Each structure stands twice: as C-alpha cells, then as structure tokens.
Amino acid sequence: MSGILGIVNWTGAPAEEALLQRMARAAAHRGPDGTGYWLDGSAGLGLLSLQLDPESAGGTEPFSSHGQVLVADARIDNRS
After folding, report:
1. Which of 5, 60, 73, 74 could lock onto 46 through a cystine, CB 3.0 to 4.6 A?
2. Which of 38, 34, 36 has the alpha carbon at shortest distance from 67?
3. For residue 9, how far is the Cα from the chain centroid?
C-alpha cells in the first residue's frame, strides 16, 4: 500500500515542503517507487508510491488539474 500524507495550517501560515519531506522519510517503507508533493498556500499533500503492477508505473501524483487535486492509492478496473 502506498503512503498518503498531508498538512493544513489552520492559522493560514504557508505549508512547508520540508515538513512534508520529513513526514515522507518517516514512512519511507510505504513508497520505494517515488515520492511526489503538492503545495498551495497553507495546504500540502504527498504520495509515497508503491507500484504493484506494470500498469501503475509512470503515473505521477499528486495530480492537479483545473484547481482540483487528487492523491489516491487506487486501481480502476475495466478502463478501456
């Protein structure tokens, strides 16, 4: 199972990438296949990737598009 992490500073202070990186190091066993981060203002997300099959290789997360951000440890079946 991949690792998902996140922070929100309710005070409005900017989220720090260094804090996300420390969190990722603490759970490094969850993501031997790569790490990705997303930061925007007071919020930050991260993914520690564990690729279980060839189809999951090459994906990048967190994924953001049109103001939406997605981080998931998921699989979609029957996706033609």
Report:
1. 5
2. 38
3. 17
